[in-house]
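Example (one chain per record):
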Amino acid sequence: MDIGIGLPNTVPGTDPQSLLDWARRAEEAGFSTLGTIGRLVYGGYEELIALTAAAAVTSRIRLTTSVLLAPLYTNSALLAKQAASLERISGGRFVLGVGLGARDDDYAASGVSTQGRGRRLDEQLAEMKRVWAGEEYGFAGAIGPRPGREGGPELILGGSTEASFRRVAEFADGWIMGGGSPDTFAEAAAGVDAAWQKAGRAGTPRKLSLAYFGLGPEARTQADAYLLDYYGFLGDFARQIADSAAVSAEMVTSYVDAFAAGGCDELIFVPTGSGLDQIDLLAEAII
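Predicted structure:
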């Protein structure tokens, strides 16, 4: 199983230089990918912009939106162009992960209704696939650049419903769980595999998951301060999310072992702080 690390693009107080230094250090430490999470109505750097900056200071590590809220990007052709541009700029390292999100205020701020968002995501994915395939738009011609990878950037989708699993089988290369236990992952992954087989897809989908972490003497305080704020809209459930964060080396290794046993192909540890020591502490924990 590959082990990735999140870019602290949503961690309060992360300055631009720290974001670049984090990307460099994560690549040097040998992590498989830099992942981003994001919301609109929250302080933080937009995911595609943050990963483009990271692409400029790295050369090997994958760059993954894990996940970007696609329905908020209402111009699907433009989103496809942005994704293809980052895929080309990064030398094929970009992985586009998209999902629906759970906050009404992100949609309200975008002037987008939450009603029918799953259907709109289906339409977006079909449109982006057409753009990446080089379909021409009347006299204007095709929308470029053409991705270096045939069919477009690697595409992974979030979601935990049967509709989400069907969407993965129809459009994507893989699936990602945005949070939850290894047991929850294994159960949902089986649903993804079943939908994949029902659709007649060859091979198997790549399956990923996220897990929050914070390490060092102030780990619990750090994790609580960030996660109880970021997920405050969920009420009491925010406490459960904060409690699930890996705040010791032992918790990190137990998550690695359990997710690997559940069939996870890549586990991305999402930081709750932006100090560069967090990268080194996580790398030490997984050796």
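Caption: The CA atoms of residues 64 and 95 lie 5 Å apart.
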